[in-house]
Design a protein that fits this description.
This protein is of the alpha/beta class. It is 52% helix and 15% strand. A three-stranded parallel β-sheet has the order 1-2-3, sandwiched between helices. Strands 4-5 form a two-stranded antiparallel sheet. Helix 3 links the parallel strand 2 and strand 3. The longest helix is centred in the first third of the chain and has 17 residues. It is elongated, with a radius of gyration of 21 Å. The C terminus is likely disordered.
């Protein structure tokens, strides 16, 4: 198996040395080399490459890794032929290509400490749909047990997601999480006005 991996990698490297393409459409999950590894390899030979990740999997878990690797956009395998062509054309015009569902889940929050001029640099976090729903229930004052019943999940699952929310927001309590979420617009208008 190791010899097979070396052979495939050598073949890919040989192609990249001798040929460039306008757009690289790469599957995220492939045998031997995944989409992130291949993206990095392509960019070693062609730093200006336009790389689109083509996948049927949820991108949220991999979003930051993919952006850091240098991808130019994402296309779902569920996309129609027209959507695929449009996404490729957009990428050639140096426009971002990102599914609307993923775009909606990107939230702007304070991620960096204040700079020397006293301004704060803003970063981005991603809340999953479950985390968003749990955060909204927390803002209503529901206990973990009540949230579990309300959202039809185990209390342990609620606690797991709360831990992730706290980590993403850089807080250590439910009250801080709600305050920070309000400050950065992470709570829907309905949940904020509910109280």
């Amino acid at each position: 198996m190791k010899a097979e991996i070396v052979t495939v990698t050598e073949k890919i490297t040989e192609v990249l040395k001798n040929k460039t393409y306008d757009v690289y459409l790469i599957d995220l999950y492939m045998p031997v080399m995944n989409g992130i590894q291949l993206t990095k390899l392509i960019l070693q030979y062609n730093p200006e490459a336009i790389i689109l990740i083509y996948t049927g999997f949820d991108l949220i878990a991999h979003y930051n890794l993919l952006i850091e690797a240098g991808v130019s956009g994402f296309i779902s395998k569920a996309a129609t032929k027209e959507q695929l062509i449009t996404a490729i054309k957009c990428s050639l015009r140096e426009e971002a290509v990102i599914p609307l569902q993923l775009l909606k889940q990107l939230r702007r929050v304070d991620a960096q400490p204040s700079t020397s001029e006293g301004h704060q640099e803003l970063g981005y976090i991603t809340l999953s749909d479950k985390e968003q729903k749990i955060l909204e229930e927390v803002s209503k004052g529901l206990t973990n047990k009540a949230i579990a019943v309300e959202l039809s999940m185990s209390q342990r699952t609620v606690e797991f997601h709360l831990t992730n929310i706290f980590s993403k927001l850089g807080v250590s309590s439910r009250t801080e999480a709600v305050m920070k979420a309000r400050e950065y617009g992470l709570l829907s208008i309905q949940s904020v006005s509910h109280e």
